[in-house]
Write a structure and sequence with these properties.
The structure is a single chain. By secondary structure, the protein is mostly helical. About 65% of the residues lie in helices and about 0% in strands. The protein contains 5 helices and no strands. Helix 1 packs parallel to helix 4.
Length: about 160
């Protein structure tokens, strides 16, 4: 399926918004802690590690949740991995842009923070983008649109 029109779009203020909003909030907290830790250091390094590891764990939970949702949906719809987990089909460009932008920001912050202070606790920052990928896959598994699976009556 293409990515235009209203495919895969949850209406504003509807169920799917909490996923990208949580992703955006996590990205903001992550960026603030890593940037502050990179500039100031000290105890902020520990805070950046806690935030990075927390986002990593939440991203893993998002992946497991999305696998469970996709497994349930796949019996009724012709789902694809590219559509459900990477938002490459069955999703309008608004949601694709939001999720991929947030993952890009997370990656940029993670590698910049870890690169600014090599061999420091900021190296844990590279784990945090798993959160963005997990939230993207959860949204795709729950809200991307796929064609119905047609079952043959022949047995």
């Amino acid at each position: 399926m293409g990515d235009g029109g209203s495919q895969g779009s949850a209406p504003r203020g509807q169920a799917g918004d909490w996923i990208w909003q949580a992703n955006a909030a996590g990205t903001l907290v992550f960026a603030a802690t890593v940037i502050c830790a990179a500039v100031i250091g000290g105890r902020l390094d520990q805070l950046a590690v806690i935030v990075s590891l927390s986002l990593f764990v939440l991203g893993c939970v998002g992946f497991v949740w999305s696998l469970l949702v996709a497994t349930r949906r796949s019996g009724l719809e012709e789902m694809s991995v590219a559509g459900a987990f990477l938002l490459l089909e069955g999703v309008n460009t608004r949601f694709k842009g939001i999720f991929w932008s947030l993952v890009g920001i997370q990656l940029a912050v993670a590698f910049t923070g870890a690169g600014v202070r090599l061999y420091s606790p900021l190296a844990f920052a590279i784990l945090a983008p798993v959160f963005g990928l997990g939230m993207m896959s959860l949204w795709g598994a729950k809200y991307a649109r796929f064609p119905a699976r047609f079952h043959s009556s022949r047995g």
